[in-house]
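Chapter summary example.
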Amino acid sequence: MREKFLAVFDGTDECKSAVRYASRRAQLNNA
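The structure predicted for these 31 residues follows.
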């Protein structure tokens, strides 16, 4: 699972919002 999240971190604004969404999903899923 962690590998998918790492693939998102490339610093663009679009990816930053994707990271925020992913981290929220992770918290909701207790990942």
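To summarize the output: The mean pLDDT is 70.
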